[in-house]
Design goal:
Length: 236
């Protein structure tokens, strides 16, 4: 692992020059919408000029670029969505090939089990017995992190580029129903709260995944897979 700040263009160029990557997967961002509203300049700096610089460097060094965007980029009603949409605009200028992947709310195990992501809050409900109170108002189709990783691997190995791909499961849920379904196997009681979340509903048809022959998962397959991931983690 080499640490760098993506807003420092010289550092980014040094790494690209040194390793001459064929493909760069760009995940750097702060996906917490509230943090972005409170720190609009920082959110803009990470998402927009840093991504623009990265695109310029991919064009100088001939690398392809996979950008982890968000379905929020299609809504543009907050700082996070607006800056992700602006980043997508630059990513499409990558000459060697680009992919824009648009997950919805991401759930599933990743090696970082402690930072403040929705999935890690679910883990804490089990490991730290934090109160499991989740919203019933916002409806969305979640994204399984393993699914996103499989799409990245498949697109790179089969050279599927220059597409914008939403990645979700077909079924709608709320934060409450998702938490209840994931946590049911672990003896955690989940309580409902109407947080009057007015985030718009975006319905993804999975048409792009189907058209490109990429994997598709059902909601239940995702829940079963995540429960298995959590069980494996708890056994460690
Ligand atoms: N979580 C979701 O529900 C969700 C939904 C849709 C899309 N996404 C997108 O998925 C991607 C990953 O997000 P995540 O939710 O998984 O959050 P995450 O775990 O916090 O991942 C974001 C990563 O970006 C890094 N980063 C932040 N600022 C940076 C900078 N200036 N220079 C270099 N690296 C920097 C962070 O590094 P540190 O760990 O060192 O801070 C972290 O490793 C993001 O692009 C996000 O917009 C997430």
């Amino acid at each position: 692992m080499i640490q760098l700040d993506i807003t420092h263009a010289e550092e980014v160029e040094q790494i690209i020059k040194l390793h001459a990557p064929d493909t760069i997967v760009h995940v750097a961002s702060n996906s917490n919408g509230n943090w972005c509203e409170q720190h609009p300049e920082l959110a803009h700096a990470i998402n927009v000029p840093a991504t623009q610089t990265l695109v310029e460097l991919t064009n100088t060094y001939g690398a392809k670029l996979v950008y982890i965007s968000s379905l929020a980029a299609t809504q543009g009603n907050n700082v996070y969505g607006k800056t992700k949409a602006a980043a997508e605009h630059y990513v499409q200028q990558t000459k060697a090939g680009f992919l824009i992947l648009r997950p919805s709310l991401l759930v599933g195990f990743s090696p970082n089990t402690t930072n403040d992501r929705p999935f890690n809050r679910l883990l804490k409900n089990i490991t730290h017995h934090t109160p499991a109170v989740y919203d019933t108002s916002w409806q969305f189709q979640p994204t399984w992190l393993r699914h996103l990783c499989e799409v990245i691997e498949q697109c790179i190995s089969q050279i599927v580029f220059n597409h914008i791909i939403p990645i979700t499961v077909p079924q709608l849920c709320t934060r409450y129903s998702l938490a209840k379904d994931i946590l049911s196997d672990f003896g955690v009681t989940v309580l409902a709260e109407d947080k009057k979340d007015t985030t718009p509903l975006f319905v993804d048809t999975q048409d792009t995944l189907h058209a490109l022959g990429l994997p598709v998962y059902s909601y239940q397959q995702m829940i079963d897979g995540i429960q298995e991931e959590i069980s494996n983690f708890l056994r460690q």
